[in-house]
Write a structure and sequence with these properties.
There is one protein chain. The protein is an alpha+beta fold and about 675 residues long. About 25% of the residues lie in helices and about 30% in strands. α1 crosses α17 and α15 packs antiparallel against α17. About 45% of the residues are buried. The protein binds guanosine-5'-triphosphate. Guanosine-5'-triphosphate binds next to α4. The site of guanosine-5'-triphosphate has 20 residues, from α4. Its main location: mitochondrion. It catalyses: GTP + H2O = GDP + phosphate + H(+). Promotes mitochondrial protein synthesis. May act as a fidelity factor of the translation reaction, by catalyzing a one-codon backward translocation of tRNAs on improperly translocated ribosomes. Binds to mitochondrial ribosomes in a GTP-dependent manner. This is Translation factor GUF1, mitochondrial isoform X1.
Length: about 675
């Protein structure tokens, strides 16, 4: 942990330019004030995950007694809030993994950000020991996030599993992320057990949900298990189904050791803790292992299972899911998707994972440049745990050296920033998110410079001029919306206003419609979800998947101060939105620029065409105005302070622009 110096007046504030705007618009759930219940939950979790509990217990588990036939590896997948973590709590209790107490609420949501927001952002593994009909089973459960921004966690988790519990809320029924998660499991050829949860709710209609499951997923309704995870009703039946319907892993213990790293975390004392699924062989402390990715050799210091805390074991055997510590200290050594094997016993590496495709990019800068190195180390460590973030170095005249980060969505970006703050005590400035546009180049000079014809633009400052390109492309996504049919008209109008093209429409039951639309990504990243929720009284759900690129009429918009362009405020916009976006930026800049000795013209321009303008009138701030009488030392102090303040200004032409002004304006672009 490190404490940044010079955090000044931003200390303690979530200083993301975007986040402030997003919270203002209600894009993000406000961070709730801790309730008594939350405090009690937090205490329970602190107890569960306190350092004392993490201490290595002298008694190691002997996992050799679990033959491959008695192992089941499964994930719990569902739409947001349908009850995955609550079901995981009951499964942990039923198997005696944790004591049954009233405070067991979403026990596997270990991160502070998860507890505060009440959502899972990180998949969590727990090994459960379960006796059934005289046999002892080892059940490896992975609780996954429901939100689309974290679906990379789901797909990685599935690689360690042979089956899933597909949880569906008995009142809400199938939602957009239910469909997306079902297909992830289906394509991975996993056994799918449908679980209808919350049957205790007054409005629960499990029979209707059964029919939806049959219609949309072609799963016979008699395969559905109806439960209340909250009350524990019928949960034992879920465990039995896991044993009966999910096959044991297909592995060979006699073959040389081969394991997939499907997740990893960084511990400042022990280095990288890799979550591994063993495909072949056995591994134990003292073994020399090799990373297929780096070809580096390590000695294994510890192996074990998560129960749900780390519980060291003598050995891990093929078919099991556990953790492994081998003194990997560097971020480059801890690749998620890597294959580990024994020294001198090389194996064919496992396919690994497709790298995550960032949907939005934003600049990240330390609040104070002296914090750059500390922030760099924090970002590196956090990206070990969240490998879906992409990092490129970047710099800005106003904000100094920093990075351009790629995220899977805006919630992902906000959660990453919150984790930086909470887990690494780092406050940062995040700039406006932008989607990755592309340009097909026609200029031979540019093609030579970039060494390719089609370039991806993740920073608006790199946008090539129209005269040098054949066409611009914008990313598109295939969106799934599920809505009660009384809102269908309004939903369709919203989609049209966002330049979306309808691809499909299907009734999933008598009064619920599933719509498929092709959306330009930049039309949905900021506030689409909010608008959809508000026009459907909260009933419509939305999920999307990458659908490539389409030609788009994009323009680069400059912001000029007395004719001089401001590099930080260059924006790429669709031609039709340029005027409204430009006007909003000019207005915000007018409000945040201090008056100066001369008039300032603020203009938004596309090429040589001015599309919006505001004016800041001339004025000189007289810092001595309040100093009556002749106290010369006080006057000198005030003049000195004014001079120091000016050092924090950036000069554009002869205009002094404080850093604050940039931050406020970057916010506007999110508010549009
Ligand atoms: N009435 C009732 N409420 C339930 C039941 N199961 C879960 N809930 C509630 O539903 C809410 C969401 O539950 P979670 O377990 O956090 O849902 P989740 O699917 O893990 O949520 P994400 O991880 O954010 O996707 C919580 O308020 C739970 O108390 C149930 O069987 N009955």
């Amino acid at each position: 942990m490190w404490t940044p110096v010079g955090r000044g007046r931003w200390h303690g504030r979530a200083l993301t330019v975007w986040a402030a705007a997003a919270a203002h618009r209600g894009l993000l759930e406000p961070r709730p004030t801790p309730t008594r219940e939350a405090a009690a939950k937090s205490r329970t979790l602190d107890r569960l995950y306190s350092s004392a509990d993490r201490k290595v217990t002298p008694e190691k588990i002997d996992l050799s007694r679990f033959s491959v036939e008695n192992i089941r590896n499964f994930s719990i997948i569902a739409h947001v809030d349908h009850g995955k973590s609550t079901l995981a709590d009951r499964l942990l209790e039923l198997t005696g993994t944790i004591d049954k107490t009233k405070n067991n609420k979403q026990v596997l949501d270990k991160l502070q950000v998860e507890r505060e927001r009440g959502i899972t952002v990180k998949a969590q593994t727990a090994s459960l020991f379960y006796n059934c009909e005289g046999k002892q089973y080892l059940l490896n459960l992975i609780d996954t996030p429901g939100h689309v921004d974290f679906s990379y966690e789901v797909s990685r988790s599935l690689s360690a599993c042979q089956g899933v519990l597909l949880v569906v809320d008995a009142n809400e029924g199938i939602q957009a992320q239910t469909v997306a998660n079902f297909f992830l499991a289906f394509e991975a050829q996993l056994s799918i057990i449908p679980v209808i949860n919350k049957v205790d709710l007054k409005n629960a209609d499990p029979e209707r949900v059964e029919k939806q499951i049959e219609k949309v997923f072609d799963i016979p309704s008699d395969e559905c298990i109806k439960i209340s995870a909250k009350l524990g009703t019928n949960v034992e039946r879920v465990l039995q189904a896991v044993i009966e319907r999910i096959p044991p892993p297909k592995v060979h213990r006699k073959n040389p050791f081969k394991a997939l790293v499907f997740d990893s975390t960084f511990d400042q004392y022990r280095g990288v803790i890799a979550n591994v699924a063993l495909f072949d062989g056995v591994v134990s402390k003292g073994d020399k292992i090799v990373s297929a990715h780096t070809k580096k050799t390590y000695e294994v210091n510890e192996v074990g299972v998560l129960n749900p805390n780390e519980q060291p074991a003598h050995k891990l055997y093929a078919g099991q899911v556990g953790y492994l510590i081998a003194g990997m200290k560097d971020v480059t050594e801890a690749q998620i998707g890597d294959t580990l094997y024994l020294h001198k016993q090389p194996v064919e590496p496992l396919p690994g994972f497709k790298s995550a495709k960032p949907m939005v990019f934003a600049g990240m800068y330390p609040i104070d440049q002296s914090e750059y190195n500390n922030l760099k180390s924090a970002v590196e460590k956090l990206t070990i745990n969240d490998s879906s973030v992409t990092v490129h170095r970047d710099s800005s005249l106003a904000l100094g050296a920093g990075w351009r980060l790629g995220f899977l969505g805006l919630l992902h970006m906000e959660v990453f920033n919150q984790r930086l703050e909470q887990e690494y005590n780092a406050s940062v400035i995040l700039t406006t998110p932008t989607v990755p546009y592309k340009a097909v180049l026609s200029s031979a000079k540019l093609i030579k410079e970039y060494r390719e014809k089609e370039i991806t633009i993740i920073n608006p400052a790199q946008f090539p001029d129209k005269s040098k390109v054949t066409e611009y492309l914008e990313p598109v996504v295939l969106g799934t919306i599920i809505t009660p049919d009384e809102y269908t008209g309004k939903v369709m109008m919203l989609c049209q206003a966002r330049r979306a093209v309808q691809k499909n429409m299907m009734y999933i039951d008598q009064n619920r419609v599933m719509l498929k639309y092709l959306f330009p990504l930049n039309e949905i990243v900021v506030d689409f979800y909010d608008s959809l929720k508000s026009l459907s009284s909260g009933y419509a759900s939305f999920d999307y998947e990458d659908a490539g690129y389409q030609t788009a009429e994009l323009v680069k918009m400059d912001i000029l101060l007395n004719g001089n362009p401001v590099e930080e405020l260059v924006t790429i916009v669709h031609k039709d939105k340029a005027h409204s976006v430009g006007k909003a930026i000019c207005e915000r800049l007018k409000d945040s620029l201090p008056r100066q000795l001369f008039e300032i013209a603020i203009q938004a321009a596309v090429g040589s065409k001015i599309i919006a303008r505001e004016t800041v009138k001339a004025y000189r701030k007289n810092v001595l105005a309040k100093c009556y009488g002749g106290d010369i030392t006080r006057k000198m102090k005030l003049l000195k302070r004014q001079a120091e303040g000016k050092k924090k200004l950036r000069k554009i032409g002869n205009i002094e622009v404080p850093k604050d002004a940039f931050i406020k304006v970057l916010k506007t672009q999110c508010d549009k």
